[in-house]
Amino acid sequence: MVNIQLNKKSNNQIYQLFKTGILASRIMRPHLTQTVIDTVSNLSEKETVFISGWHAPIEKEIHKVLVNHGKPHIHAGAKSIHKLACELVEDKVLFLTHCSEKVHRITRENALRRNQIICELSEQLLIPWLDPRGKTHEIVKDVCADIPVFVFDSHYNQELIQSGAKSISELQVM
């Protein structure tokens, strides 16, 4: 387990809700985009809060949906809290970061650490797609035994399914 020490800003009560982590590769998969957004829209009606870095394109699209619907969410940053965008409604967002006040740019190491923290804080993960060659893919493979990981049907997610991830269709019946 990763030792998590975070700075917190904004609505700390959000932290107490059931957390669904969202991680995705930066490369867009247009054929899945609307399915992912529809799924998150449906899930956002339940008692869950989404946690992500909101950095990959699909994560940004999901973030827009959550903000437009006024849904609470957690922004896990890979830089100082003071450098995170604060254009969001503050009672609907919790900002978390593992970075000190001195960190002004996102580095590969900080992004990877942020993704580890998202996995540690989440009760379940929702993975639109991950590059099988990426480091986040390895992190998610490792947590498949510890928490439910749900993936969308894509050949990009086959290795995660072999590691214990479940189809997103199983999340619908939970």
Give a written overview of the molecule:
By secondary structure, this protein is an alpha/beta fold. The protein has one domain (7-172): Rossmann fold (3-Layer(aba) Sandwich). It contains 6 helices and 8 strands. It has helices at 30-43, 57-68, 108-121, 135-143, 158-162, 168-172; strands at 7-10, 18-22, 48-52, 73-77, 93-97, 124-127, 149-151, 166-167. Strands 1-5-4-3-2-6-7-8 form an 8-stranded mixed β-sheet. The radius of gyration is 15 Å and the shape is globular. It starts with 6 loop residues before the first strand and ends with a helix. Mean pLDDT is 78; it is low at 1-7 and 85-89.
Short note summarizing the structure:
The protein has 174 residues and is α/β, with parallel strands linked by helices. It contains 6 helices and 8 strands.
